[in-house]
Every structure is written in structure tokens, then in C-alpha cells.
């Protein structure tokens, strides 16, 4: 593989990264030994980036055990911020939780440092200066090598960069947004903003949460194992577009997953695309297309199906800011509305 530099960190990563959500025993692969074989197969194939999170059930433990004896050759990334239980202080990006969460992740991963530590979702209740200050201390202590975000809007990226510069703090080096043939919204602002600030971008969901595997077709019900697929299959817009991409892949002589993966890593703002292989077969199928490169004619036809900077439907795991989530942020008080 031709390795790419992760933003301005100097760290080299493979254009495919291994996302470890599907290696959690209660979510994806129930056999940790098989997950270890999948991880070793990925490393042997040249993938050197593994991404997990503290909220992925036992994924960190599975990854940590599999990396014994091979830790030094891996760029190990994990995330914090999603709720870890009912305690309201075991989530978010406060200094208190960051310092606790990193120790928990280090223990589960069986390592003394994390190469990339990411805020899983923006935390609007915590000042970004507090978050960056805590993460800076972790970098200075050697427990963390670089820091990043996931699902952060472009405006928040700019604010964080500004705060880091003004306060002399470590700045976010990476962003991890969703990106696929069906989900191109980040091309409008997030990717250009990340590029402008020298950030690397690790994209998740390059197969559209299963919609772009080639196994999901109109009228077929044998893939309805995951709740997210059930929801997406009820979205006729996404199904219509998938059918058009299947036809394009057939015409180009490519398996659908290879078309989808090659598209994501073709963008100059994308450093690496995370693949969530649950079985060895899934991983081998994706690795077979690692060298696929799309010509301008195919990319132009993709643009004609889903225009640049647009999404078809909405990912169920996409970040929704408080201005959208919370009604009181987008409605004047009833008294004011009545008076008007």
C-alpha cells in the first residue's frame, strides 16, 4: 500500500484503516480469536491503522489482546465521549472525564500510549478550551501522540483551531466524519476546512452502513439483520441510488464494494477510509479491491448520480447539533409566538 501522512502529524497510515466496532463480541464477531485473526490478516496486508472506541463494548479489549507482540507496528486510534453508562459524568469531553477515560482505554488496550485520541462527538456543554487543555496534558505526558475529533461541524473545527492557537494548546490533527457514495455532505465544508487547517481525515461508513456492499437490493429481505439496514431500506431515495450505482459498477466491471471504497479514498482530503469487517471473508473481499483506481469518466458519472456535497437521506449515526436536536433551540417561547 502507498501510505499517506496523517495531517501534519508525520504519522504514516494506510489508505484503508480497520474499524473495530464489528469486532466487539456483543455487536459483531462473537469470537475474539477470530477477530484477532482478522486483525493479523489486515496487518499482514499492509493496513497499519486500527480505530476503536471506549463505547464499542469490549472492542478495545479484543484489539488490545490481538496486538500483543505487534503493537509497535500499529497506529492505534480510539475515541471517548459517548455515554459509558447512566452516570452523566461518564461521557462528554470535560477534563474530569478525559483524564479518567484515557486511563480506562489504556488499560483495556494493554498499552502505554494511544497514537490518536479522538473526541467521539462534539460536546456542546464543555468549553473547547477545557477539552484541548486536558488533551494537551495527555500529549505532554506521552500517553497520547495526537488528538482528533469525530463528527465535528466545520464551524466547530475552525473555533477549536483558533482556540488552540490563541491559548498555545495542542490542536486537533484529525477529523472522522461519515463519507460514502451516498453521503457526500462533508465535501461542502468539512473536508475543505480540514484541508485548510492541515488536518487528516479518517472517514467512516464508506459502504453506507451496508447499503453499498452489493448485497442490498430492492425487494430482497435476506439482509435485514441490522436495524440500521431496516431503516435505510425504507428510504426509497437511497434504494433508488444504490440500484444506479450497482448498474454503474457492473458496467465498469467492478464489485460494488470496490467501487464504493475506491471513490472514498480518491478525494484528496481523505487520508484513510475505515472498513468495518466482521468476518475474514468481508475483509478479504475488501482487500481484493485495495488497488482499484477510478478514472475521471467513472467519477463524473458518480457525480451525475449523487452531486458533490450532497447526501441521499441521512445516516442514523450522524451527529445532530443541539440547534436541531432540542426544540427550545429552534422555537421561540409560546408566549412570544402567541403575542406575534
Description of the molecule:
With 340 residues, the chain is α/β, with parallel strands linked by helices. The protein has helices spanning 32-44, 59-66, 95-109, 128-141, 154-167, 190-196, 227-233, 236-252, 256-266, 280-287, 296-305, 322-325, 334-339, and strands spanning 4-5, 12-13, 16-19, 49-51, 75-80, 114-119, 144-150, 174-176, 200-203, 272-275. The strands form two sheets. It has an eight-stranded parallel beta barrel, surrounded by five helices. Strand 3 (16-19), helix 1 and strand 4 form a beta-alpha-beta unit. Helix 1 (32-44) packs across helix 2 and helix 8 (236-252) packs antiparallel against helix 11. The longest helix is centred in the C-terminal third of the chain and has 17 residues, at 236-252. It is globular and about 50 Å long.
Please specify the SSE layout and strand pairing.
Layout: E1 4-5, E2 12-13, E3 16-19, H1 32-44, E4 49-51, H2 59-66, E5 75-80, H3 95-109, E6 114-119, H4 128-141, E7 144-150, H5 154-167, E8 174-176, H6 190-196, E9 200-203, H7 227-233, H8 236-252, H9 256-266, E10 272-275, H10 280-287, H11 296-305, H12 322-325, H13 334-339
Helix pairs in contact: 1-2, 8-11
